[in-house]
Amino acid sequence: MTRAQVLKLIGLIKAAWPRDEMSPETARAYAEDLIDLEHEAALAAFLAIRRSSKWRPHQSEIREVVAERSLTIPSPADAWHEVQEAVRNYDDYDEARKWPDYSHDLIRQTVRDLGGLRALYYSQMPGADRAHFLALYRELRGEIVGQATTAQLPAPAPVRGLPAAEDDTLAHLRASTAKSLRAETAQSDSEAS
């Protein structure tokens, strides 16, 4: 993304969740963490999150959605459906049916880790097999998505165009709070007399 595109995305995030205040430091962190993503992918991820989430997403959530969409790994339910089809079509004597083609290698790896398609075919506990498959598949899928989420991150580089945080921000906040408290105290004293 270009600097202008990442700033526009941050503006969209602020507009979508107006109740959540975003400090300049937070905006800078968003910019640093999202600038390496493709603009269209980041925008599509933002739109998906905006339509399904009540709260402003963390940068990592946006990166995760981008990674999941780019990897095209089937959901656990879809993967299990493929395995069930393969089990229904399994035949010890037909090599093509013994070693089916899955839509993703992760499904093949998970089936292999559970003992292979033959073990699933002859199993007497399909409910337990399903639970084990889904748990293992989710774990492996999460590892791949996690690696892809952080793989593109370069070392944080300063993003120009965001307001710089003042060094004396805390002192400024203390002074303005003290000033408003003095004004409220003076007003309440004048009303009491």
Write structural notes for this entry.
This protein has helices at residues 3-16, 24-34, 39-52, 59-71, 76-88, 95-98, 105-113, 117-122, 126-151, 169-192. With 193 residues, the protein is an all-alpha fold. α1 (3-16) crosses α2, α3 (39-52) packs across α4 and α7 (105-113) crosses α9 (126-151). The protein is elongated.
Question: Could you give the distance between the termini?
Answer: 61 Å
Count, helices: 10
* Residues in β-strands, percent: under 5%
Uncertain segments of ≥5 residues (pLDDT<50)?
159-167
What is the element string, with H for helices and E for strands? HHHHHHHHHH
Specify the overall morphology.
Answer: elongated
**Major sheet description:** none
Q: What count of structural domains?
A: 2
Helicity range of the residues?
55-70%
- Overall mean confidence score, pLDDT: 83
Which structural class is indicated by helix and strand composition?
mainly alpha
- Give the beta-strand count: 0
Radius of gyration: 26 Å
